[in-house]
UniProtKB/TrEMBL annotation, chain A:
It is found in: Cell membrane. This is ABC transporter permease. The chain crosses the membrane at residues 12-37, 57-78, 112-133, 145-169, 204-224, 236-260, 280-297, 304-321, 333-353. Keywords: Cell membrane, Membrane, Transmembrane, Transmembrane helix. Its main location: membrane. It comes from Rhizobium oryzicola. Pfam families: BPD_transp_2. It is a multi-pass membrane protein. InterPro entries: ABC_transp_permease. It comes from the Bacteria. CDD domains: TM_PBP1_transp_TpRbsC_like (cd06580).
Length: 367, 514
């Protein structure tokens, strides 16, 4: 209580403390691993090797990272406007429909780089549309955005299954998925980027949407910290009463923020749908929308932080998959536990060490 | 019951009730308390006075266990004690009445008093015990209050009485009151002083924190003055003067009255007709109010907080939609305009609550310097903000208004109250508006800054602006206004000239005479 007002230098707040949280999370994860009878050091080694040790491992890690950047940005943009968008999962799912429709209609006629901008727009528009109804309900009717967005995740999932099973399915096939896109509807892999570092991508689906994600990071940064709209969103997010005083329209700002948030979530679909499987499948989002919440929390809703946090979760995803393969004792569920510990310490308990930190810092300063 | 009253045996020792020896406390770079020594004699009312940010609240928070001192010793009744939290403070017989009451609004008086001292898992036994104890306290100290009344139905003065009873119920021998009269009518304040005197005569020790010199003179036996974290003087109240105390507080001579000439009044700029405003529950807060403010005059609205002044300001500022009535600015109807449009039309607003309205405390200073005006072409022609222009603008205002520290990149929360208010005042005045509406311009602002802000307001008047001023500080209303309107229960109950006496206004504010 008494240390909350004490300012700490940025390198402690944004560097040392997250690192400390991460170390504690890994230490406790290590205890869990040790408890189920495996060697924690060995497990950590496998985790790192499995995610960063080879070209294709890095490729997979960055593939996951890409998805998490999009959903992390989505959560962050809404968060700056004081909105807790839990619906990135559903918005990404519906965004996939937008991307797929563009790909299906253009892939026979034009090369990928012509399809890509339309696909980006299609994914964003569909994702934004899915965020619009909760946004409107929040802005005009006061229905809480957490409740509505989470319900829209379920509605979105049901809608997509319906469309894939009854409408988009290839006639005569059993799998609920669209036809495979032609190369004109696919986002190419980034082999050349890996080659620059002397790495081979192999089968990993690391693709152009990673670059789109980085561009979006920059655009989100401009939006939040350099634009008038971002200024209004931040004002509303920090102090709704000051926003009223300043004449910032509540409903409009809430809706726009949610549209942008939904659009960013929708773009996540580019990565798996057009960059990896080249078709729209059920459940392709696979929880990335929820990971986005953790990524945004850990990255302090800043694009740069989000890149690092997304990378961390990419490592946990890819390395975790490899680890559970190499150490059968460590099941897929164990990996989820470890991820949960990281979220717990880096997100929910991010201020746990702050009072101690303040005391140490003050002692050093006085000395 | 008896387990609750953990008190040291009352030996008739001649130790002071409280002794602070060498108390030192820093928050980061801010040295809030520097080697403070203080001795409070038993059975006295001891005033602690100082500007905002002088360290009074920090010192009392240390005494009450909210903060731990970095160095120093606290002695209660001659015994060195460690006060780790408020439980420990209560254990040593120290009770606190906060500036903002810590009451559960929809609980009864009795329930609030028992809260945290229920005396067991089941309420019935504790309740009857508490009722008896409450009766005893009432008889002993003349603190009358209906134990079954619901807090939110009670007037503010009575709620404060409940706070005092809460502390006494927990066995407090030493009562700390933090700015207790801020929310009271003059009559309620008088009553509070009577109660405090009874408490003192019954042997309790009272520590009164305030920045109002008049209260110190009226009620205390001793007074200690704090300035910039240091205890600069302790005096017997009978042996000092208001002027001396003011000078000790600020460290230089202070002008306590605003110097201004006769107003040069022009045409009507702001006109309010039959305005009725309801709050979110539909209760009428402003009831059929009409008045004009002309060029070159300051119209003050006096009234006890909560009589509709805030809602009136908000309605004019476009923050709250009026239920009926008309508002005109320079002949244009503005009752339906939003705050952004009103700024374009030339209406500036210094809000009552800078923490929640006037400023975004987590923003850097320069970001707040354009709040509400951020869509202006000067701060970026397109969708983007021109940060260089904004920062240059902020730096200019910082220099002109002597805002300290002069750093536009500092987080606004890290400025003192006075400097925060200067940020708001600079932003609103420097736009050169036609009319200016001002709420509580100097609440929680130190004396030096009050003087400065008052002078700016008078300059605006002399430049021919129409100014509407709302303040709960009667002194401020009287020294700034050219005309004074008094609001009571949502209505304007009368108009007086600037020479109206405090008693007259006080009675009108209490709704007794017109």
């Amino acid at each position: 209580m008494s240390t909350a007002s004490v300012p700490l230098p940025n390198w402690i707040t944004y560097g040392l403390m997250p690192l400390l949280n991460l170390i504690v999370a890994f230490l406790i994860s290590g205890l869990v691993v040790w408890w189920i009878g495996e060697n924690p050091i060995e497990a950590l080694k496998l985790l790192i090797e499995g995610s960063l040790g080879r070209g294709d491992a890095i490729g997979f890690t960055l593939f996951y990272t890409t998805s998490f950047i999009f959903t992390g940005l989505s959560v962050a943009v809404a968060f700056h406007a004081g909105l807790f968008n839990i619906g990135s999962e559903g918005q990404a799912y519906v965004g996939g429909l937008g991307a797929a429709l563009v790909a299906l209609s253009l892939d026979q006629y034009v090369p990928w780089y012509v399809t890509m901008p339309f696909a980006v727009i299609g994914a964003a528009v569909f994702g934004a549309a899915w965020a619009f109804i909760p946004a409107w309900l929040q802005a005009k009717r006061g229905s809480h955005i957490v409740i509505t967005t989470i319900m829209f995740n379920f509605i979105g999932a049901a809608l997509m299954v319906y469309l894939l099973v009854h409408v988009l399915i290839v006639p005569g096939k059993m799998a609920p998925e669209t036809r495979t896109f032609l190369p004109g509807g696919q986002l190419p892999k980034l082999d050349w980027l890996m080659a620059l570092f002397g790495l081979k991508l192999g089968p990993a689906p690391f693709n152009v949407s990673f670059l789109i994600a980085l561009v979006m990071c920059f655009l989100v940064w401009v939006l939040i910290w350099r634009s008038k709209l971002g200024y209004e969103m931040r004002t509303l997010g920090i102090s709704p009463s000051a926003a009223v005083y300043a004449g910032i329209p509540y409903a409009r700002t809430v809706i726009i923020a949610m549209l942008i948030s939904g659009g960013l979530a929708g773009m996540m679909a580019l990565n798996p749908v057009m960059g990896s499987s080249a078709r729209l499948q059920v459940e392709f989002v696979g929880g990335a929308g929820f990971v986005g919440i953790a990524v945004s929390l850990m990255g302090r809703s800043h694009p740069l932080g989000i890149i690092f946090a997304a990378l961390l979760f990419g490592i946990l995803y890819q390395g975790g998959a490899d680890l559970s393969f190499e150490m059968p004792n460590i099941t897929r569920e164990m990996i989820v536990v470890i991820q949960g510990l990281v979220i717990l310490f880096a997100g929910a308990l991010e201020y746990m060490f702050r009072p101690t930190m303040v005391h140490i810092y003050q002692r050093f300063k006085r000395a | 019951m008896s387990g609750l009253r953990i008190r040291k045996g009352k030996a008739l020792s001649q130790h002071p009730a409280i002794e602070l020896i060498g108390i030192d406390k820093s928050f980061g770079a801010v040295h809030a308390n520097k080697n403070i020594n203080l001795s409070v004699a038993k059975g006295t009312i001891h005033g602690i006075i100082g500007e905002n940010g002088a360290g009074k609240s920090t010192l009392m928070s240390i005494l009450y266990g909210f903060y731990q001192a970095d160095r120093g010793e606290i002695r209660v009744d001659g015994q060195s004690v460690a006060i780790k939290d408020s439980q420990a403070a209560i254990g040593h017989g120290i009770g606190m009445v906060h500036q903002h009451f810590m009451l559960v609004e929809n609980f009864s008086v009795l329930e609030n008093i028992m809260l945290g001292a229920e005396g067991g898992q089941l309420l019935a036994k504790g309740r009857s015990g508490a009722r008896a104890e409450l009766k005893r306290l009432e008889d002993e100290y003349g603190l009358e209050v209906d134990p079954d009344a619901i807090i939110e139905d009670l007037p503010v003065g009575t709620q404060q009485r409940v706070e005092i009873l809460k502390a006494l119920y927990r066995g407090a021998d030493i009562l700390i009151l933090d700015e207790p009269t801020g929310v009271l009518t003059p009559a309620e304040a008088d009553h509070l002083f009577k109660v405090l005197k009874v408490l003192r005569d019954q042997g309790k020790t009272v520590i009164l924190i305030t920045h109002k010199l008049r209260e110190i003179m009226a009620i205390t036996d001793d007074v200690s003055v704090m300035r910039r974290g240091e205890m600069v003087a302790t005096r017997k109240t009978a042996e000092t003067t208001v002027e001396e105390l003011a000078e000790l507080m600020v460290g230089r001579r202070v002008l306590l009255r605003v110097e201004k000439g006769e107003p040069k009044v022009g045409k009507v700029l702001l006109s309010v007709r039959n305005l009725t405003v309801k709050d979110s529950r539909g209760v009428v807060m402003v009831d059929d109010v009409s008045f004009d403010v002309r060029e070159g005059e300051i119209v003050g609205i006096a009234g006890v907080a909560g009589n509709g002044q805030s809602e009136l300001l908000e309605a004019i500022a476009g923050i709250r939609k009026p239920a009926s009535g008309e508002i005109q600015l320079d002949g244009k109807p503005i009752a339906d305009a939003d705050p952004a449009r009103l700024r374009e039309l030339g209406l500036a607003h210094i809000p009552e609550d800078r923490h929640h309205m006037g400023l975004v405390l987590k923003f850097e200073e320069y970001e707040n310097a354009v709040l509400g005006y951020h869509r202006d072409k000067r701060y970026g022609s397109g969708a983007l903000l021109d940060l260089n222009a904004i920062r240059a603008d902020a730096a200019e205002k910082i220099e002109k208004y002597d805002i300290r520290p002069p750093n536009p990149r500092l987080k606004t929360a890290n400025f003192s109250g006075g400097n925060q208010q200067k940020i708001v005042v600079a932003r609103e005045i420097e736009r050169d508006p036609k009319a200016l509406i001002i709420g509580q311009p100097t609440r929680g602002v130190d004396i030096g800054a009050i003087e400065f802000i008052h002078r700016r307001i008078v300059e605006m008047r002399d430049a021919g602006k129409a100014i509407l001023l709302v303040s709960v500080e009667l002194d401020e209303i009287r020294s700034l206004s050219d005309r004074i309107l008094v609001m009571f229960a949502g209505k304007v109950v009368g108009e007086k000239g600037a020479d109206a006496s405090e008693q007259t206004l006080g009675l009108m504010m209490a709704g007794i005479a017109a």
